[in-house]
Write a structure and sequence with these properties.
By secondary structure, this protein is mostly helical. The chain has 3 helices and no strands.
């Protein structure tokens, strides 16, 4: 038997709003979901930034990136120095056979 032929019980009233009951969006939903809605005018995260603010933000990010790259470079240099010391310690323990060139 087809499930679509079953009668839907309309006796339960899940929605208090008559528009929602009919499957329509109410005014509050339209304002929140469509253009012009959803953003608060006083929210500093959504306000447009001035050119100076954008420039300052770019400079700050650039400096942070350069500082991070410098830290990585220094850490790599330290790891390389430590590996060289460890290799020198190991190399002293190795003995190489020298070929006689008669």
């Amino acid at each position: 038997m087809d499930d679509f032929k079953d009668k839907v019980d309309d006796s339960e009233d899940d929605y208090e709003d008559k528009d929602l009951k009919k499957g329509r969006m109410n005014e509050e939903m339209v304002n929140a979901l469509h253009f012009g809605g959803g953003e608060e005018a006083g929210d500093p995260a959504t306000q447009k930034k001035t050119r100076e603010e954008r420039h300052a933000e770019i400079m700050e990010k650039s400096k942070a990136f350069k500082f991070h790259a410098q830290e990585i470079k220094l850490a790599n240099a330290e790891y390389t120095r430590q590996l060289d010391e460890d290799w020198n310690d190991v190399a002293k323990l190795l003995t190489f056979k020298v070929k006689d060139s008669d």
